[in-house]
Amino acid sequence: MRNMIRRYGASLTLLICLLTAFWLLMLVIVPNITLLESSFRPYLPVTEIGGPKDIYTAANYMKVFNGAIEVSPFGLTFQIPVHVLTFSLTLFYSVVVTLICFMLAYPLAYFMAKILSARSLPTMFLLLFVPLWVSEVLRAFAWWMILALKGPLSWVLLQLHLIDHEVRWIVGYNGVMIGLVYTYVLFMIFPVYNAISSLDSNQIEAAEDLGAPWWRIHWRIVLPHAKPGIASGAVMVFMLSAGSLLVPSILGSTTSQWFTQTVQQWMLDALDWNTAAAYAFLLLLMCTLFVSLVMKIFRVKLSDIAN
Amino acid sequence: MHKIRQTLARVYAGAFIFYMLLPLVIMSAAAFNNTDKIPAIVPWKGATTKWFTALWADDRMWHAFQNTIFVAIAVALISVIVGTAAAILINSVSGNLRAALYGTMISTILIPGAVIGISTMIMWTKIGNGLGSDFILFNPGLHLSVLGQVSYIAAIVMLLVLARLQSFDQGLEEAALDLGATHAQVMRRILLPHLYPAIGAGAAVSFFQSIENFNVTQFTRGGADTLTIYVFSKVRSGITPTINALAFLLIVVTLAMAVLYELKRRRNASVEAAREAEARRAAALEEAVI
Fold it and tell me: Which residue of B has its CA nearest to A29?
């Protein structure tokens, strides 16, 4: 800090500190504290705010347990509160999306890092960057068209006689999963690619010379080396999927509900900002726990993930 | 066996690119289909440009477009200023303070957009209520979207600028100070010029991140539209192929920029190669002379 004052003078240093403080305090820390504080207050008409009814309560969080519905996965039937169900399904499907993205991305990342020649690499990147720069809403919309009942997918399969009548593809969480994987798989490719390309190819060749089969080379050499990249990709894909509102809204079916959609209903339809705050906080909690878990499993630090 | 695996990998990469690009092609193609109302490419009913005409005449789209540009410029401007300041600060502190600051900054990238949107909205309206003020800042609207978006986009700029700072030689600043430069001159003539490439990249990334943003905007916008919100509401209600026309135009713009970037890169690479060849020749010549 003293070094900074010597270089840039007291007033510039102060300005730099104030700008950073504005960002971290006014845009990050205070809003989140306010969010937490509001989530413990009841939703009241304006006239009663600050009145005797305006006390701290966990009632907003308890709303998660309202309205049980019956579900029967794997033949087991039991009652579960509808928002708990949404929360669990969002968590579950986000993890599944993350796994699918990893399985799709890993071979490609390896190919780009170790097989593709250095000359064609920029072209490959360019081709991958194009969909990344096209906005998320349009990518979801493209799949909405493709998966439509009388859409191109059904049409092609009909022409090939693989199906004999048009299929409704957007059933349950199918559409959401397809959309999320398509939209976020690129966020897995780039970190995994970065990690693998820093691996010395001599290690792979040495293993080959010593007679290791290809799957063991991947299991024992490439995968362990790519761990930070995988962790970073997994965190990005999970956060984006769990926090996505666009894809579940556009590609959702009548039976799919994403937790962000529930948050949105409290905020924009019910106009109950306090309950929305409580639900948003639960979403934040889910994401934080997931990140901590991944960091623990992969033994990486937050700074490794952000890179 | 090795050959087969390599070929398989190539086929897979080709299939992956196909998977990435085909939806965009289908979406673009539907913009030219002469259907009645619903966007589709099958059955093909002949080519038309009527959806582009309809898009051109859509006032709401133009208004949303204008809003998007304003928001994106504001976000890019604030994010660049704040992000650069934060990077300089991070670079000059160390120890626990640095770790805490850095951790807080990059954690903003990981906060879900819905949480950012709701927390921004609640805080500013609460401040407004507390002050009893009806000032525009404290009501829902796109200015709150700007603040919400800055909260995580500034972190991206910070990372870019911080990376660039690693290659900065602080001796240059020392030299300038010794030669009698003022602090402002050191900042403006020595440090910032070194950071310009990262600042430029940061501004571009911020601009596009802002255009793409949906979650934060959806919760803070009040009644205002941005392009993303406009497309979203069109998809939810009464969709027409005008959206495909818009998508086609956006993809063309993206492609054009990508191609320009690639051409520039190639030119730079060839200039670089020429320079290296020159240097090698000069070295060889020198050796021969000695």
Answer: B104
Contacts of A26 in chain B (CB under 8 A): 147
Q: State the Cα torsion B19-B23-B28-B30 to the nearest 10°.
A: 130
Q: What is the pLDDT of residues B4-22, one digit of tens each?
A: 888 898 999 999 999 999 9
Output the CA–CA distances (angstroms, integers) from residue B15 to A80, A124, B22, in the order listed. 42, 13, 10
Cβ proximity of B87 and B162 under 8 Å? yes
Confidence of residue A305 (pLDDT cuts 50, 70, 90): low
User: Which domain, by its residues, includes B120?
Assistant: 59-240
Per-residue pLDDT, averaged over A72-80, amounts to 76
Q: Number of folded domains in chain A?
A: 2
Both A75 and A191 in one domain: the answer is yes
CATH number of the domain that A55 lies in? Answer: 1.10.3720.10
Q: Mark whether A30 and A120 lie in a shared domain.
A: no
Q: Which residues are CB-contacts of A23 (< 8 A; sequence separation ≥ 6)?
A: B82, B86, B105, B150, B151, B154
Peptide bond into B43 cis (omega under 30): yes
For testing contact with chain B, the best of A2, A6, A7, A180 (most B CBs within 10 A): A7
Structure tokens that stand for A242 in this block: 């769990």
Cα A249 to Cα A50: distance, rounded to the nearest angstrom: 36
For residue B255, which residues of chain A lie inside 8 Å, CB to CB?
130
Interchain CB distance below 8 Å, A19 and B211: no
Q: Tell me the Ramachandran region of residue B206: left when phi exceeds 0, alpha when psi lies from -120 to 50, beta otherwise.
A: alpha
For residue B184, being part of any structural domain is answered with yes
Residue B181 corresponds to which tokens in the numbers above? 């430069």
Tell me, yes or no, whether A34 and A127 share the same domain.
Answer: no
Which phi and psi angles does B101 have, rounded to 5°? -60, -50
- Asked if residues B99 and A18 have their Cβ atoms less than 8 Å apart, the reply is no
Q: State the residue range of the domain holding A20.
A: 1-38
Closest residue on chain A to B129 (Cα): A46
Task: Verify whether the Cβ–Cβ distance B118 to A284 is below 8 Å.
Answer: no
Torsion angle in degrees (nearest 10) through CA of A238, A244, A250, A251: 10
Question: Has residue B245 been placed in a domain?
Answer: no
Domain count, chain B: 1
Q: For the domain that residue B95 is a member of, what is the CATH number?
A: 1.10.3720.10
* Residue B108: closest C-alpha in chain A: A28
pTM of the predicted model, to two decimals?
0.88
CA A224 to chain centre: 23
